[in-house]
Design goal:
DNA-binding; DNA-binding transcription factor activity (chains A, B); alpha/beta; four-stranded parallel sheet; Rossmann fold; six-stranded parallel sheet; about 350 residues; homodimer
Chain lengths: ~350, ~350
DNA sequence: TTGAAAGCGCTAACAT
DNA sequence: ATGTTAGCGCTTTCAA
């Protein structure tokens, strides 16, 4: 592409190609005079030299590529943030990210071919990212390369993994509500048997307990995590006289349903009802009135973390298998918009 | 990675590495007996041989990489569909897609560095995709490699480009409304000076004209293409007595605002008011009640088209610069959900 | 402190 | 119809 090779630099600098290589790669254990280094650097810069990666890859047997296997990149903006984080981290290590989209697999036959595609493309390692936080059993050929899981945990617990701190996120959300003065806080939870369902509930209860509020079963409802069921649940929990003054929703879609329910019931958000969501789906959260206060998933950070872990693995320091015992949990920050206010009746109506 | 090289295959098949190369690459002008071919193929399969791409790249001076420079991959699901289309097409040609996320640039200094990143990574060609359909002036270094524009046109008109057929999409939307029996159809348009604003208006007028309906200025409103302004516009146009029975919205976010306005006005969708959006943002369109009938942008198809064009360019047939005069326009299909019905008063109230 | 030279795995021009 | 061989541009051992 460029035409200029290491030889051109060597010629211009008046040294051997070996020296150029040493200088440009900061090869350790090689003493080159400061003067020569400068000359080489200048020559390289002047010529706009960049290494031929194929040649380097061939010689070093390192492709400089890492693969990211991502489920359903197409339908979720979340995947985008993971990619972004991975991308940035990869670039910082002069690695190139190769992405492969995988269909969302229902059961076992999980992505063997997609992993193979990556391996065929000679990636040095692979990132395996799922669409939502869950436990997976990874394809067997993933054992052929260093691998890190993103937003997923390995059923066999062998691979390093990074996931959101669901409990912490829920704690942040509900604490925010409690600190605004709410004590009757409903929880519109998901029904799926996934970590988020269980852990967000744990966080919810933890906060209530910490503040001496008894968790009422009546206030904890479950339905599929979609807008419509969220709407139904909200109508239900908002029906009685002693309705909650705030709702913590499993995700932003359910919160969207709650908004609709509130509108139908003539309840003003946040004056009559405060709502906190989860996921921070911009398209929803920012387009609702008022803006939805919600908890953000650390997608960018997980992508970043995973690449760093991969680099670590690749560097060989991995011999000291310093893998933490369980998956690494990353903080889920609260994103404040306009859907939370003090309850109407500060202390009982 | 794999350990098995062309030599191993040659040895197992009892032929020279040349023959293996010829067979496996289907090198033209090379006569190899069917029997030998079979033997080589079998040996390769048996060993699970895959070519070392670095070696091949070094030798052929083709990296097998193509770059996709995408604006704001992170915040829009649209980018995901472009990637997917490009990905699939690339894979079909045994090409690997390298993606680079670019910040959304306001003015001139457009993405020079991002293009350079790709060039440094030795991509053979680059796809340049913008976040929404518009005219750009591409960075100068994009002239150094074959390039194709996605969802954008080149100010200088030199690069092949593929964009959505905005007029056609609007025609499909409004025709759908007219065929449902509507004659008073409002258009909540964008204000930005972008192709979509102008062309969707053209499509809207075209359909009205074709059906002998006079376009009333009163029914054509403009505002920023967000939920809130959409809401305001809808309130405005829905205020009078002879309000429109249907609304064509510039995008799904504005349509979302229109839904809210309808709810406030006690108008049932689609009984009292039909709505068609544009963009098919799943997160919005599928989560509204009723589901929003809207027009889909051909993101996947544009990504696909662009890679095919690139391959064509790369193949050298490009000498016959068979570039169509303007950008290629791809069809925007209507996606029917539940927001359109016949108007309440079939022929005047 | 610097340089000569081998060779990574493959393709393709040129034998045979 | 098949085989020999010369590099592609780089890193790295080894020698000077």
């Amino acid at each position: 592409m460029n035409g200029v090779g290491i030889r051109d630099v060597a010629r211009l600098a008046g040294v051997s190609i070996t020296t150029v290589s040493h200088v440009l790669n900061d090869t350790p254990q090689t003493r080159v005079s400061a003067e020569t280094r400068a000359r080489v650097r200048a020559a390289a810069a002047q010529l706009g030299y960049g290494p031929n990666r194929a040649a380097r890859a061939l010689r070093t047997n390192r492709s400089g590529l890492i693969g990211l296997l991502s489920e359903e990149i197409a339908t979720t903006p979340h995947a985008g943030r993971i990619i972004l984080g991975a991308q940035d981290a990869a670039r910082a290590h002069d690695l190139t990210l190769v992405i492969v989209n995988a269909e969302r697999e229902s059961s076992g036959g999980s992505h063997r071919d997609d992993v193979q595609t990556l391996i065929d493309r000679q990636v040095e390692a692979v990132l395996y990212a799922t669409m939502y936080h869950r436990e997976v059993s990874v394809p067997a050929n993933l054992r052929d390369v260093p691998a890190v899981l993103i937003d997923a945990t390995d059923r066999d617990g062998l691979l390093p993994a990074v996931v959101p701190d669901e409990v912490g996120g829920a704690v942040a959300a509900v604490t925010h509500l409690v600190e605004a003065g709410h004590r009757r806080i409903g929880f519109l939870n998901n029904v799926d048997d996934v970590p988020a369902t269980h852990e967000r509930l744990v966080g919810y209860k933890q906060v209530l307990h910490r503040h001496g509020i008894v968790a009422e079963d009546r206030l904890i409802l479950q339905a599929p995590s979609e807008t419509r069921p969220g709407h139904a649940l909200a109508r239900e929990v908002l029906a009685g006289d002693d309705r909650p003054t705030a709702l913590f929703c499993y995700n932003d879609r359910m919160a969207m349903g709650a908004y609709q329910a509130a509108a139908e019931l003539g309840l003003d958000i946040p004056r009559d009802l405060s709502i906190v969501g989860f996921d921070n789906q911009e398209l929803i959260a920012a387009n609702l009135f008022p803006g939805l206060t919600t908890v953000a998933l650390p997608h960018y950070e997980m992508g970043e973390w995973a690449v760093e872990m991969l680099v670590h693995l690749l560097s060989g320091d991995a011999d000291h298998k310093r893998l933490p015992d369980g998956p690494t949990r990353l903080h889920c920050p609260l994103v404040t918009r306009g859907s939370v206010a003090a309850p109407r009746e500060p202390r009982k109506a």
